[in-house]
Amino acid sequence: QQQVKQSPQSLIVQKGGISIINCAYENTAFDYFPWYQQFPGKGPALLIAIRPDVSEKKEGRFTISFNKSAKQFSLHIMDSQPGDSATYFCAASPNSGGSNYKLTFGKGTLLTVNP
Amino acid sequence: NAGVTQTPKFQVLKTGQSMTLQCAQDMNHEYMSWYRQDPGMGLRLIHYSVGAGITDQGEVPNGYNVSRSTTEDFPLRLLSAAPSQTSVYFCARSRQGLGTTEAFFGQGTRLTVV
Question: What is the pLDDT of residue B80?
Fold first, then answer.
């Protein structure tokens, strides 16, 4: 049972364009929703995260939109740059003492930004 | 390395061999986890620990053992390697706290079982 569904699997965007990656979850116990960025040969690194008490969070060119009733959340990358080319993972975690050591990941989206 | 050191970086095993993947953190965080990453599958939780002496199973624990004798170290043991365990393994640390706390991942160990 896949608890976090991510789409699309791959995405090609032109420089300056908007990249949008979507995720949906099933477990209503999830209450922390991070996005991770991973470059080849490296470990995932936290990009931005949101809790369900807000519907949107923005950090620079990166924005998370969250729809609690639909159990969906998405990552928007504005003014996409070639340096943003990487694999992006959405994830979810239950409320566990304030930490997130039990992350459930989506299957990932390979983003390519063409110059 | 986000304060998480994984060794070795690469390893080739024969089916049936045993080995230990090492993970060490230098931030004194309470929580540590092991994930495996397979193509098209994202990362899946193998085992986790909420403190020294306390471990529990994640989503895909079969074939793996862990122990946590110190806060710093969280080794992952493969007792009898199988080709299905060919994967990239990531160790992560995070601290206990109120609100959101970030999980920091190591650089990974790429394991091939032949």
Answer: 96
